[in-house]
Amino acid sequence: MKSLLRDITDFFLPRTCHLCGCNLRDSEDAFCVRCVETLPRSLYHLMPMNPMERRFAGIVPFVRATGHFIYSRDSQLASAVHDMKYRKFPSVGTRLGEIVGEELLMVGFFEGADCILGVPMHWWKKAKRGYNQVDFIARGLSKATGLPTVDAVEAVKTHKTQTSMTLEQRQANLAGTFRLKDPEMLSGKGIVLVDDVCTTGATLRAIAGLIADEIPGSRLYLLSICVTV
Ligand SMILES: [Zn+2]
């Protein structure tokens, strides 16, 4: 029944790959198999003190940190991220989360982790967009790893778009943005803090700093699906 429904919807509204635009097979989701293979992986998780870990070392405590796909502005991946964030295709996030979760699970990245915490979005921004794409990423990661998602931090104020800001400007812009709404939920836990794109690391820093300050004994795994170099 499900495949009949899919056949019908595919006929009227064909599902296409968000990277190359080809028609997807039944077994494929968001991307075709060939594009999944060619996504630009950073392989940071295989490097000691990788560039993502260097962004946070000495600033916030963490167990491990990585960014999985290399992100550049005019790349195919950037257009898939644009679809995910602005063109109402949050399922791209679920698929990216699944791919990253499967690949990092194989190398033991999540050892000692208990839960997945996505970077929250202010309710007003979420209402305007209709969803927070990071919730979908967290869902995909959860599906691949079996770790539950937790909703323990909230964004209590909106902030300006940060695209053209320096790290210092971003940090000032983010001050007071996040609040722990359920510290008990994170107490003593290994927390995978996940974001969609990491450029300066200011957002992950702000939340990781908050957790480290307010929840002694927590262990942080910093994970961004995409990372700029
Ligand atoms: Zn493709």
Q: Let me know the largest β-sheet.
A: 4 strands, parallel
Query: Number of helical segments?
Result: 10
CATH architecture group name of the largest domain: 3-Layer(aba) Sandwich
Q: Identify the quaternary structure here.
A: single chain
Q: Give the averaged pLDDT, no decimals.
A: 92
Strand content: 15-25%
Write the layout of secondary structure elements.
Elements: H1 2-12, H2 33-38, H3 51-56, E1 64-70, H4 76-86, H5 91-106, E2 115-118, H6 123-129, H7 133-145, E3 153-155, H8 167-174, E4 178-180, H9 183-186, E5 190-198, H10 202-214, E6 219-227
Parallel strand pairs: 1-6, 2-5, 5-6
Antiparallel strand pairs: 3-4
Helix pairs in contact: 5-7
The structure holds zinc ion.
